[in-house]
Structures
1.
Amino acid sequence: MRTQPTNDRCAVVTGLGTCLPDRIVTNDDLARHLDTSHAWIHERTGIARRRIAAPGTATSDLAAAAARAALTSAERTACDLVVVATTTPDQACPATAPRVASALGLTGAAAFDLAAVCSGFVYALSVASSMISAGTCRSALVVGAELYSTIVDPGDRSTAIIFGDGAGAVHLEQGSRSDPGAVLDHDLGSDGDGRDLIAVPRGERYLRMRGREVYVQAVPAMTDSALRVAKSVGWQAGDIDAFVGHQANIRILRSVAKRLGLPEDRVVANIEDVGNTAAASIPLALAWAADQHRIKRGDRLVLTAFGGGLTWGSSALTWSGTRPVHGSLR
Ligand code: UT7
């Protein structure tokens, strides 16, 4: 499904924030209690370390810190809408987003959660920017926040090596399509036939993933989605200055880039340091790219995700030059 823009009014990225827990868990740390090794994990996934939150941390704590940082980055104190994309809400009911809004002093703002697993941030960006384009609200915080450490089986080497905790957020305001930072279009899709490939089985506590089957589907789905959104805004694949893909596996990112014909220096990859943070992955990668000066004002960006559901999605935007702010839990 593509959302076709109808007017010049659109959402513009005006702030970017992150929050990562302090504790770093290396591959060697995991290899002490799992039948695995740093060499296997690094070679097969590109991951060297990930952040794991202290017990008692809530997804809303990470989300609020990242959202507060995004507000600071945007030099704003108010916002009309808070959308939290997460697989690990604080509780089944109510949603996490109103609590995040309250923590930021945004009582009265519209606030809801969005569940699309690893594609959650792109889905939430699409929803919030469409609401801004429609005039329903003038500003929004879009947050991806995850505590996969609460749903990963520490004894399962096929998932425990991959996932990490963290949160990232963007602040959006109303602007026009020619503004640097303009969010131009989206491509979203799903295939519920693959719902068992990444799932917390009903009545169970832990996530199960059939990694190889996900991998095989992720590469063509991400490539096709990225191409669709690029085409919809009039870009050739080669026009993409930075491809910011969901950080699930460095080999997936490289395969997608190869299919798109993009050189490796246009592929944003921070998976080595943070692992797979699901809905938080893309805003964290975006912030890393901005810190590393890998993206500059006016660059053409494609964000592409794939994950549980199955779901996938892409967004095309230009870059505003926004400097990220890094929040903390302390
Ligand atoms: O974020 C949501 C979307 N998720 C994804 O996109 C995940 C996509 N999938 C992947 O990234 C990869 O499939 C994994 C990293 C999960 C697994 O890598 P793989 O190259 O697909 O490995 P595999 O599952 O095919 O396993 C290959 C071998 C097996 O041994 P045998 O049967 O060949 O003897 C596994 O038992 O590697 C073994 N293995 C491991 N060995 C050491 C699986 N996990 C590990 C491990 N350490 N952690």
2.
Amino acid sequence: MSSDRSYAGKTVLVTGGAGFIGSHLTDRLVALEARVRVLDDLSDGREDNLADAMPHIEFHRGSITDPAALDAVVPGCDMIFHLGANASVPRSSSQPDYDFRANLAGTFEVLEAVRRHRAGRLLFASSAAVYGEPQTANGQMGEDHPLVPKSPYGGTKLAGEFMIDAYTRCYDLDHRRVRIFNTFGPRQRKYVMFDLLEKLRRDPAKLEVIGTGDQQRDYNYVADTVAALLVVGAHPRARGRAYNIAGGRPVSIRALVDLIIELTAIPRPEIRYTMESWPGDVVRMVADTSRITEELDYKPLVGLEAGVRHLIDWHRGQFAPPW
Ligand code: NAD
């Protein structure tokens, strides 16, 4: 379904809009002629992510944990994309208190502001981390998979989902939840793909990779994730439902390393896998995406290879690597 015409003239708030996914969503909403407000405390986001959008949006620097900051942006909203969060699993295990405040207390305050101001629809950016390790024979996780998070981050995202569900029953909220699997692309300055490119920038001859290389991920390019957010946000059928968002083409970290080396066109470096990962890491994170495909007619258009090419181009423009 095309959601493109649904946003023109609408007042849309993006919490976390200066972050990686939020800034791409903001750019797209501006292009679709929405009236966009962004609330971000810049704890992880950057104003320069919004360089193109800034003349066309209302930017508010503030925290979702602050009711006054929310009172400045929520009234009159037709739609809220709630992305503001600690988005890092490792940070949630090293600083669970920070994760709790941003992700659960913050989501509670967003819900309260929606209730106070009778704002419109809410889309919550949840995560594949709510599932934990796959418990299915084929390793794929659909939306009905058991919810067994193994990191504080997965726990706060899941608690946020339950809270939104309960608010919906109690106060008749119009909400949707998305469980995002790994998204990648320009402006993401952390995690596996960025780290690999940074290591290769510093030394194209040697590459240390965290883990065994066997971890599997279901990467989605950021423009494809944004397209999914817009479809879920607009589609009447999505009301009250949860949707996986993923690329649908699982890849091992080892295969990803090979792809990056191929696309950067450098001679094959000496590669060492550390064989150890971080607490809360999930070995196989692969989505069953049939619900979003069948119910909302969504398919990623860019895909892994073209997406990695875009990422490498951006990296070259930003950091001038020797390749
Ligand atoms: P990001 O860190 O780039 O963006 C999060 C944004 O939220 C940042 O700009 C940060 O400054 C802001 N923020 C943090 N705490 C805040 C607070 N208290 N008040 C206001 N703003 C605050 O992360 P991202 O990758 O763009 O993720 C966006 C959303 O999608 C997050 O909710 C994340 O949990 C979810 N998600 C992302 C992925 C992924 O692969 N990137 C996967 C699953 C879920």
3.
Amino acid sequence: MDLLKQRILKDGHVKPGNVLKVDSFLNHQIDVALMDAIGAEFKRLYGDAPITKILTIEASGIAVACMVAQHFNVPVVFAKKTQSINLDGESYTTKVESFTHRRTYDVILSKKFLNKEDHVLLIDDFLANGCALLGLVDIVKNAGATIEGAGIVIEKGFQEGGAKIRGQGIRVESLAIIKSMGDNVVEFQE
Ligand code: 5GP
């Protein structure tokens, strides 16, 4: 998606530890017009799939997921990161290792909001090592629901997440795939 790639080149900053900062339009301040264009692009890509729910993980996936959901006219559900899992059987639970915070979270989703009738589009802002997305995949499998695919805003193609998820036979569409980055130079995969 050219509009997104141009914006990354203009406003993205490469930080030590392979982190791309996109705080001015995606992760802190949010460019709603750009998010809407992103929502439209995912609708173009997944418009033929019978999607009933958009699933993401807090916090930075939520804004993107909401804009995507507007185009599909379905609800957003977000998995919550929590300190302690309440083992009451009312929630799906999994563990996710955070790439940016370098710690492991318990992640929960109420059983009320996902069931085996659902056809799910997974959405997230970044795909790096794939832990966040694998956590969501685990939750959907526990619910017995169907994964229609994943929509990622920025995939870091030099990390292993994309290969891991695609290797499970899951369709992954990323709007910008970074081939390499360093010293404020970002190169995209064609
Ligand atoms: P993964 O679980 O695939 O390793 O990492 C995905 C999660 O980590 C995303 O939800 C995102 O919040 C965060 N993340 C990973 N890499 C980056 C990055 O380079 N920049 C930013 N801003 N977030 C990232």
4.
Amino acid sequence: MSIPGDKPFQPTKSLGPVEPDFRILIVDDDPALRRTFPHVLAHPGRSFDETGSIAEAIVRLEQQHYDLILLDYRLPDASGLALLDWLVERRRDEAVIIISGEDAIDAAIGALRRGADDYVRKPYHVAQLQRAVESTLHKGALEKANRAMSQRLRASEQLHRYLVESSPDLIFTLDAEGRFSYINPRIKPLLGFERNALMRRPFTTLVMPEDIDRICNLLNQPSRMPGESFNVELRLRRSRGSSIDDCVTVSLTGLPMLAQPGDGRSAGLYGVARDISERKRAEEIISFQAYHDQLTHLPNRVLFKDRLELAIAQAQRRTGALAVMFIDIDRFKLVNDTYGHAEGDALLRAIAARLSTTLRRGDTLARLGGDEFTILLPDINVPEDAETIATKILDALAAPITLSQGEYRATMSIGIALFPRDGTTAEDLTRHADIAMYQVKRSGKNAFRFFDPTLNTHHHERIALENDLRNALLRGEFELHYQPQVSIARRQIVGMEALLRWRHPVLGSLSPNTFIQVAEELGMIGEISRWVMEEACTQLAQWRSAGHLELRMSVNLSPLDFDKRDIVSSITSCLTRHALPPGQIELEITESLMMNDTADVATKVRELRSAGLSVAIDDFGTGYSALAYLQKFPVSTLKIDRSFVRDLDGPSTNPIISAITGIARGFALDIVAEGVEQPEQAEALQLLGCDVMQGYWFARPAPAHEALEWLAQPARLFAGH
Ligand code: C2E
Ligand code: MG
Ligand code: MG
């Protein structure tokens, strides 16, 4: 390989083929001779010009180039030798044949010395002249071709030099010892080195220390075939700085150069290094996106699984343990539905940041999607280690999180599965942690729990139930049963409580206790509540048109219904549609709703009350701080929870029920006792000042047509009294 110099390349205009035509100039003072030459020498592709003096010949030659000059030795104005000198001085390459009457050999030698190509004596023999002309032209043509060839070689070398010197790639050659013997100017902008400073220095000067072994192995690989190239990705360092952040990643193609053609020994290396830092960065961004969650920038499901599998393999080798946590934020959907997705996203980010602070180096926190997170603790000794971290996580969320729309107290349910006790594959461990998490949700949330294999079957049932529930509304599998609320004193039915039933195609009639929570978690409760309200109103309107104008209908609401902004208008418009007086509808809400005042429940309850509806507190007495919230929530009725009624086995006084009736009187509220199963309970309640009751003793919840029969003959309900 030739090493180009520094001159910039200027492409030549034409590298075309040698012109085949020959121009011949005849310079002779004898006009007869001038005329005969073209005849004697005629040949296709030859053209002739003629002139009788040296001066005129020079004029012609200044105008154009000739291949051959037939030059008389003596001319009137000067000797032919003068023209020869003229040509030599100007480095002209015209071939010259001297034609002269001078027969002295020294005249011929003189002419040939001064650059003539041949000499023909006058009077000439035609054949002799022709031979001389042919051979001179032939020689001239060869020289011309050679000149063109070397011109092309020069141009081609210039082109290659240009390509190498201006290449966007770093191009270099190394000698047999691996030292630079050539580097193109790209080195300066790429790495900041002066090319001369690197000459004769080892190539490894440029290589990042981390990659030196690798490249040395490659360069010294004896197994490579002569002339076989290799390609490797390599990090080169910049002239200042040797940190990994300050390097350029290149794709290097190396081609060993051979000492001699056919000789296997290497004489060095020809290398082309392309800067692929940009591509690398793009690849890193793409792979980051593929393995991370966009919102929190935490590892995603794919990366979590990778890390978990790796951790399992390592734990297996050292017979160690590891833990997987499955975390779900409690009631996260509320935030999203109430305050919008932007606020929900901000909350997720804040929670992710809090969770991160509880972890140790080497632990992985991932977001699986939605409000689900997982944590891999690859290095635990005893289950208590996982317990400590779970406690830390719950504590980390104890302080409220302040966002643009307010303060949030987030809690979470955490399920934990241990390797190898609860599973030996990534799938099993994650699934079992998920099941344990569900168990936490069921038993009140905001806690952690270890996987318990006996829970597994429940989990399968739950998944099947979820699938069926999604279709239940569409398939019309819901139905309302009605349970009367009776006044003992008046021996009348004063109200009916609408109780939801699900006619499951396989499991039969299901109580709401088995599916309401699932519907809440699946976000389906709103739709179900609307259906219940519509159905209950339709039914009440029917009974009213059958003459039961005083009858009140009680409808149960879920706390989640109060997260809906339009709860009030959606209920009042339902009443209007069915032309029902609002006082005939009682909404049953739970105490837990009132303890959670984030969703502005008090305002909504007040709006419902001022629209004329009754509001009852269901299962009253099972929550806390009852008095405090009764002052805040303008409810109309308290329903004494069944658990208090159950304890009533005789006409003795009961402190709790006395207290409840006392409260009710104080706040001027109605009272309904739930779960009355025995006549003794009814009597005791009556003595305690509680008149309206509901329970199996009077009637079990039943379909509408049965309820209508009770309405027609209420005395049947008091048969035992
Ligand atoms: P709840 O509102 O306290 O309803 C009373 C529950 O006690 C009903 O159970 C009823 O069948 C049962 N019960 C009535 N009398 C007696 C008795 O003498 N002894 C006993 N042991 N139980 C009695 P059910 O129908 O299974 O409903 C359970 C709970 O599901 C309800 O408790 C209510 O909180 C909820 N629920 C019912 N229907 C709906 C609904 O349409 N929407 C919502 N969100 N929740 C509903
Ligand atoms: Mg109820
Ligand atoms: Mg109840």
